[in-house]
Amino acid sequence: MLYAVVSGFGAALVAPLIHQSVRRWSGWLLVLLPLALFGYFASHMEQISDGEKIAFAYTWVPSLDVELAFMLDGLSLLFVLLVSGIGALIVLYGSAYLADHPQLGRFYAYLLMFMASMLGVALADNLITLFIFWELTSISSYLLIAFKHDYESSREAAKKALIVTGAGGLALLAGLILVGIEADTWTISELASRKDVIQEGGLYLPALLLILVGCFAKSAQFPFHFWLPYAMEAPTPVSAYLHSATMVKAGVYLLARLHPSLGGTDEWHAIVTGVGGLTMLIAGFIAWQHTDLKKILAYTTISALGILVFLLGIGTGLAVKGAMIFLLVHSLYKGALFMVAGSIDHETGTRDIAQLGDLAKSMPFTAVGAGLAALSMAGLPPLLGFIGKEIIYEATQEAHDLLPLVLTAAALLANIFNVAAAAMVTLKPFTGQAAHTPKHPHEAPLAMWIGPVVLGGFTLAFGVASNLLLKDFFAQTVAAVYGKPYEVKLGLWHGLNTTLVLSVVTLVAGGLLYAYLRQILPIVKPLNVGEKLGPDRLYDIGFEGILDFASLTERFFQNGHLRYYLMTIIFTLSSLLILTMTTQIDFDSIQLNVDDVLLHEYLLAGLMIAAAITITMTSSRLMAVAALGVVGYSVALLYVFYGAPDLAMTQFSIETLSVVVLVLVLYRLPKFKDFSTPRSRARDGIIAVMFGGLVTTLILIITSEPLQSRLSPYFAENSYVLAKGHNVVNVILVDFRGFDTMGEITVLGVAAIGIFALLKLRPSSRKEE
Amino acid sequence: MFPAPPTFEDLNVWAALPVIILSLWASVLLVADRFINNKFYVAAYSLLGVGISLVIALFQAGDLFDIGESGTAFEGMFMADQFTYVVNIVALISAAIGILISYEYLERTKLDRGEYYILLMFSAAGAMLMGSSNNLSMIFISLELLSIPLYILSGIRRPQEESEESAMKYFLLGAFSSSFLVYGIALVFGAAGSLDLGEIVVVAQTISEQEATQRYLLLIGAGLITVGLGFKVAAVPFHMWTPDVYQGAPTPVTAYMSSVAKVGGFAAFLRVLVTGLPIIAEGGDAAVWVDTLQILAALTLLLGNLVAIMQYDLKRLLAYSSIAHAGYILIALAAGGVPGVGDSAAQAALVYLAAYAFTNIGAFAVVAAIEKDDSTGTTMDDIKGLAVKRPWLAGAMSVFMFSLTGIPLTAGFIGKFWVFRAAMDAGLEPLAVLGVLTSAISAFYYVRVVWNMYFETGDAVVPERQQYLTSGLVITAAGTLILGLLPFILENLVRDASLAILR
Questions:
Q1: Distance CA B382, CA B404 (A)
Q2: Which residue of B has its CA nearest to A589?
Q3: Does residue B503 form part of some domain?
Q4: Residue A622 lies in a domain
Q5: Mutation site, B213, B291, B496, interface A, largest A CB count within 10 A
Q6: Where residue B490 falls among pLDDT bands split at 50, 70, 90?
Q7: pTM tops 0.80
Q8: Most exposed: A287, A342, B72, B489, by fewest CB within 10 Å?
Q9: Strands, DSSP E only, in B167-325?
Q10: Do B446 and B332 meet the contact criterion of CB atoms below 8 Å apart?
Q11: One domain, residues A575 and A437
C-alpha cells in the first residue's frame, strides 16, 4: 500500500517530462495512474464490506513512535475512492481545459502530488504521518491555487489559503501531540479504545480545541471560511478537485476519523454542531446572492461542509450515516458542477449567470451532466441527493438531547438555500433565452464533458440502486465513524411522514426563492455586513498589523548605533537584576562598616569619583583619556593599600600602555563633537546611575560575607618551604604562578609588536585605497 | 616534594585528540601560510586538517575505536562524552563546509588570504572546546578562542566600510558581553568555591537549601553568565549585533559564523546550566533560571520571526531567521531546567543544532553563490527567476527554506519536533505553542524566497557556477534531506548524550 501512496509523488516528478515527450496525449497517459489506483482500492471493496481492516506499517522513527502506518477501513476506502476516481476525471478535464497552457506539465505534477498527499491523509494510521500528509496537501494545494501566478489576485488567494490552512495545520499538530501524549499511543486505530483516558484527562479540552481549529481551517468553517471563495482564482479543474471531494473534505475526514475517540462529549456537541450549523447558514445565505458561477459554487461548498460538520457534531448513528451519504453525494455533484462551470467559462468566455442562457442546445452533453448533478444537489428523487437529504432530516428530528426543533429548522433553511443555488447554476445558464456571450458557445471536448456525465450518472445510479450498491459498504463506513457497528438501510421511499413533508417544503421554498430572486435580493442586501466586519477583514487587519509591528520593531531596536545596542543590554540586565534582588535579597543582612575606612582611602575614592565625572563632562578627548588613566592608577593604588603589589604592578603597566595607545589612536581621529541632546544625556545618566548602583550593591553583598581565603595562608606557609624564597610576592610571581607571569609577559610583548606593526602599516595601507 | 608530573595517560590526552589536531594543524599552517603563495593549497590543507579531525571525532562518537577514554581529561578541565563528540562533529562539519564555500568567493572578491582558513579553524576549535568544557574558566577561554577569530573574519573585507563596521560592532559588543560572563563566573566561584562544574553542582545543592548570601551570588552569577552566553547565541535582547554583523561580514563568514557561534554558545550554555546549575531552586522543582530563559525564548521567537518578515535583503533576512532559530533552541534549554528532562532537552538541542548547521550554512552558501563581486546582489529582487537560470541552485535554496520553516521530510522538522517534544515533556506547553505559532509566521518569509525564485520573472545577473561552492551546497542540501528522511541517524548519535549529573 506504500507504493499506492508514493506512486503519486513519483509520477509528479516525471509528469512534466512525460508531458514534454507526448504532448497531446499526456492527459490520457497520466490518467492511467489514478485509474489504476482507483482499481486497486476498489478491489479491496469486498473485503472491507465484510468488515475487515487492512493495515500496513513501516518503521520510520522508532524512538519517536513515528511509523509510516496505513490502514484501510470503510471510511478511508470511501475517501481514497473519491480522491483517485475524481482525480482521474480531473486529469482528463485539465488536459483539455489547459490544453494551450505552456505549463501544463507542471499542472500535472502539482495535481498528482496533491492526490498522493490526499491519499496519504486518508490512509494514515499514525498521528504524525497523518499530519505530514496533511501539510503536504496544504503545500501542493497552494501551488495549485497559485497556478495562474501571473495574476496578483491568484497569488494573494493562494497565500491566504496557505496561511489559514497552514496555521490551522500547526494548531492541529499541537492538538494531535496532546492527544498522543494523553492516550500514550500514536496509532490512530488504537485511540478509540482509549476514549475514556483521553476524554477524562486534563488535556482533553485544549487538544479538542486545537484539533478543531485545524479541521475548521482546512474545511473552511466559520470563522476560517473566507479563504475558500478567494481560492476560486485557481483554474477550474483545481477548484473542481480541491473544493469538491478532496482538500476541504480533509478536515471533515479528520473529524470523522477522530469522532470515536474525541466525540460524544458536551464540548464536542456544542462546538462542532454550532460551528457547522452557523457555517451552513451563513454560507448558504450568501451563495444565492452571487452571480458568478464559481462564487455560487464556492459558497454552497462551504455550506455543504458546514452541513457535514454539523451532522458529525450531532454524532448519532443516523447523523453519521447522513453525513457519510451526503459526503459522497456532495463530492459527486459538486465535482460535476465545478467542471460544468469551467466548461461554460471555457466555451462562452464568461461565468456570470446574468449573461448566460439556453446553453442546453449548444452544449447537450454538458447539460446532461449538469442537470443530473443539480437535481442531486436540490435533492430530488430518484437521485442520491434525495436520500442524503432525507437522512439529514431524520437525523435532526431524532437528536433528542440537542434541541431537535432548532436543528431541523437550521437544516431546512440550509437546504432551501441549496435548492435555490442549484437552480441558479443550471436552470439559468442552460434554459431560457439565449444570451450574447463573449465567445460563441459550442460543446466542450470529450475530455471535458465526460467528467460531469460520469459523476452525474453515479448520483443517479446510487440513488436508484442505493441499497444494492452502497448498503454493506456504508455499514462499515458508518461503523468506522460511529465507533460501533451500525445497520445501514437505504431507500427512496420511507413512507408519508414528516421527513417527506420537509423535503417538499424545501423544494417549494427553494423554488420560490429562485423564482422571486430579483424581488428578494434588495431586501436582504443590508444584511450583508460580513464583508466589512467579517473574519476576512480581521485577517487583513491582523496581517498589516504584523507588518507594521515588524517595521516598528526594527526601527526601534535596529537603528545601527552601537551605543543604543549597549544601552539595551545594560538596561535589560539592570532591570533583571534589580527585579531579582528586590524579590530575593534580604537587605538587612548587608552591613556597612564605615568606621574602618581611613582618610587616605576617602581621598582616593573622591579622586576616582571626580575623575569619572570629568570623563563624562569634558569636551576634550585627551582630557577624557587622562581622567580614565587617573581612575586606573587610583585602582592600582587601592591594590597597593590592600596588599596586592603584584596586581598593582600589572594594573600600572596595563594602564600606562592603554593610555599611550589611546592617545596615539585619538590623535588620528577627527575633532570631538557633541551629538547628544540634554534629553538623551538625562536618559543615559539614569541608566548609568542604575547600573553603577547595581554593581555597588553587588559588591556590598559580596563583602558582607566573611572572606575565607585559603590561598594567602597557603602561600605564606609554603613560600619558603617549597620555593626557598622569603618574599612571598616574588615567589608567587616567579614560582607558584610562574607560567602565568610568563604568559603575561608574552601577551604584553605580542601586543607591543602588534601595536608597532599597526603604527608602521597604517599610512601606507590608507594610501593604497 | 612535588607530585610527579602527570603522564599523557593520566591526563587522558587522547580523548581530546580532534581538537588538539585541529589547533596544532592550524598553528603550523599559520606559519606555513607565509611560504605558500597559491592560497588554494592553504584552503586544501585546512580542509585536510578539518577532515582528519572529523574522522577521529566520528570514530569517537561511533565508538568504533578506543581513542582516549570517555570521561574527564586534563585533570577535570575537559570532558569527553557523547555530548562533546556530537558538538565536535557539528562544529567540524560546519568548518569543512565553511572552507568549501569560501574559496571561490574569496578568490573572486580578491580576499584570498591564507589566514582566513586558519582563523576559521581556530574558531572551530573554540566551539569544540566550549562543548567539552567542564570548568568555567575553560568556558571563558574557549569562548574567546571562538569569538576573536570571528571578529577578525567579519572584518576581513577591509577596507570596505560595512565589513569594518560589522567587525568593530561585533568586537566591542562581544568584549562587553564577555565581561559579563567573567563577572558571572567570578560570582559563581565566590559562591561555590570552585570552577569545576561537577563541584559547583554539589555546592549549589547545599546552597539552595539554606538562605544565604551565597545564594544571591549564585543567582546573580547565573544571570550574568546567561547574558554573556545569550549574546553569543543572539538571544533577544542581546541580539542587536546580529543583523548588522551578518549583513556586513563577507557571506561565507556569515554562513560559518551563524552556525559555529551557535553551536559553541549553546554547547556551553547547556554545560553550565544543565550540568552545573540545575538546582538553584526556590524550594520547587525546576531551576530558577527556567523562567528567565522562557522569557528570553519567547522574546527571541517573536522578535526574530516578526522582524524577518520585513526584510528585503537576504542576508539580513537570514540574520533575523537565525535569531529566531536561537529562540527554538532556547526552548530546549529552558526545558533542560526541569528535573528529569535535562538529558532529553540537551539531545533535542543537539539535534536542532545539527539540522540547523546544515540548513543555515546551505542557505547562506546560496546567497554567496548569487552575490556579485562587489558584495551586492543579495536582495529579494536578485533571486527573481533564479529557478529558470539556475534550477539546481533554486532547488537547493528551496530545500533550505523548507527546512528552516520546519516542513516535514527536512532536517528542520526533525529538530523542531525534538525541541517541542522536550518542551512538552517539561510541561512548558505555552512555549511549545508559541514555537509552533511563530513557525507559522516564519513560513511567510521563507516561502516568499521560494516564491520569488520560482514564480517571479527577473533578469538579475548571477555569477558563474562555482565548483567548490557547489560541492558545499550538495553536501548541505543532501544533509538537510538525509537527516529529514532518516532521522534515526541523529537519534543514534545523540542518544547517549547526557549532561545532567543530578537526576
A1: 21
A2: B213
A3: no
A4: yes
A5: B213
A6: confident
A7: no
A8: B489
A9: none
A10: no
A11: no
